[in-house]
Amino acid sequence: MSRTRRADEPPARDERAVGNQALQHSLGATFGALALAMVVATVIGVWFKPPGAPVRIPDPDALVTGGCAAPVTEDSPTDYVGIGCDSPEATILILGVTTPVEDGEPDCPYGTDQLIEVWTPPVVPTATPSPTEDDPEAEEDEAEETEPEVTEIVCARNLYPPHPGDRGAGGGQVIIGDCVASVDGVLSETPCNGSGEVEPEYKILDVVADALDCPEATETEIDRWPGIEPEEPGYHVACVIAFTPDADED
User: What pTM was estimated for this model as a whole?
Assistant: First the structure.
């Protein structure tokens, strides 16, 4: 015979057990979700803020490593200003910022398509002073105080093709796998596919500071920068072999 429980009668033991299990499952799911959220928050915190380091937001107009830039104006395609990488106006990604060198090439990462000089103070066009000014010497003093100089080199990669800094593409810095030709006694990079103004003569096996470090397959060692002596900073040797179109296609 079935029995109906009164409203004021406590639930049977089995019913209480089922209720407790449901409560435990609910609490477990809640605490699990909270724990997962804490883990995700911790990981995100590590990604964007290393332990003990403050959060730094770079100057949006500055050219900084990992940032993007766009030409200042259409009339000045080589003058850039920092801009968000999600902006449709952005054209280059900054791979690194290094110091200029008097001779040789700056230390830029692989994939650099172009080198951008940063002048301090910035080079800004100014109006030509009128010859009727009362104090012409003031112009000379001002020019001496604001004479700009290159203080940084920005290593940039195009956000969109072409990428002349890629291996064998004919631009950027000379790296292993690039093709070069001797132009007026200086090695000049040129596309390996022969599409450049100069036909390739050699293929780069390596660029080293000492010819003794060239690979065994090297056929010729050529001074990368004629006029720089081996003991001077910036001296490098290009370890090359004769360019062969068929071999390059393979």
Answer: 0.62
